[in-house]
Design a protein that fits this description.
Layout lengths: L3 H7 L7 E6 L2 H13 L7 E4 L2 H7 L8 H13 L2 H14 L3 E6 L3 H13 L3 E6 L4 E3 L10 H11 L3 H5 L2 E8 L5 E2 L2 H7 L9 E13 L2 E11 L13 E12 L2 E11 L12
Parallel strand pairs: 6-11
Antiparallel strand pairs: 1-3, 1-4, 2-3, 4-5, 6-7, 8-9, 9-10, 10-11
Helix pairs in contact: 3-5
Length: 276
């Protein structure tokens, strides 16, 4: 028989500061965990519940789990909290052989990243559980090709290289304005984790979309970079305009970028015929 102390440590009383979602397929659950690790989450902050033993860890109405667990169950039943309904739903999912993934996310931006990763891998009932309340986290992924540059700029301005990298395929190609090439999502993430990314603001301008097929498109977006305080110790450099070309494709209900190329717009050669 387990000791009360061990039982308390094992039982999940309430998933505070965690994003939680259910994935039905074992392979997808495994891929979701790998994606979370690549995005920078620590393995100790990721909990995967599956099987009858984990039902007892999560079940707020189940067998004896020690004094603290009993008090928690009493409070949940007494006040009929919405969280109780959610937790019992996850219990049913685990009992049915699905995988409940819990990710510790103390910062709001990390909640969005974790939720999007879970959604990308087919998760259902994705929500965030704070100290006093829970909230549903809907899929924020890009629904149209035009969303790619908008979300790219948003991730840039929020200093969120994880969200920026998640716009790209795992094996995506990215050529930056100086001709430097990155060959996968992880290298794109690392490249945008330091440097000018942390010292500037990016704004989108005119965006054009050319559909090559219902599933593939080319997006040309004008972007203006300003406030690059890292570039010079003296006066702030002028804003710089570029054209970013994204090759995107449909992936389920969202669009992902397979390749991107950033080209500097030189004012004297911006007119047609000025350069070739």
């Amino acid at each position: 028989m387990k000791s009360v102390t061990a039982d308390r440590a094992h039982f999940i009383q309430y998933p505070t500061n965690r994003v939680v979602g259910t994935v039905g397929d074992a392979d997808k659950a495994g891929e979701a965990v790998k994606a979370l690790l690549r995005a920078g989450f620590d393995r100790s902050d990721i909990d995967v519940l599956h099987g009858e033993e984990d039902v007892h860890r999560l079940d707020p109405t189940g067998a004896q789990h020690g004094i603290l667990a009993q008090v928690q169950r009493t409070l949940i039943r007494t006040f009929e909290l919405e969280e109780f309904k959610h937790l019992t739903h996850y219990v049913d999912d685990v009992r049915a052989g699905r995988y409940v993934i819990m990710v510790l996310t103390k910062k709001r931006v990390l909640r969005i990243v974790a939720a999007d990763i879970l959604h990308q891998h087919g998760a259902e009932f994705v929500g965030f559980y704070g100290r006093w309340a829970c909230e549903e986290l809907p899929h924020t992924a890009q629904k149209t090709p035009q969303d790619i540059p908008v979300l790219f700029a948003r991730a840039w301005n929020e200093r969120n290289p994880e969200a920026l990298a998640l716009l790209f395929d795992e094996d995506a190609e990215y050529v930056n304005v100086t001709g430097l090439c990155w060959h996968d999502r992880e290298s794109i993430r690392k490249a945008h984790a330091t440097g000018v990314f942390n010292h500037s603001t990016l704004a989108t301008g005119e965006t054009r979309v050319k559909l090559l097929s219902p599933e593939v498109a080319v997006v040309h977006a004008q972007m203006t970079l300003s406030g690059n305080t890292e570039a010079s110790a003296g006066a702030q450099p002028p804003a710089r305009t570029t054209i970013v070309s994204f090759v995107v494709h449909r992936a389920g209900d969202r669009w992902l970028c397979a390749s991107a190329h950033n080209t500097h717009v030189i004012p004297d050669t911006a007119q047609p015929g000025a350069a070739s």
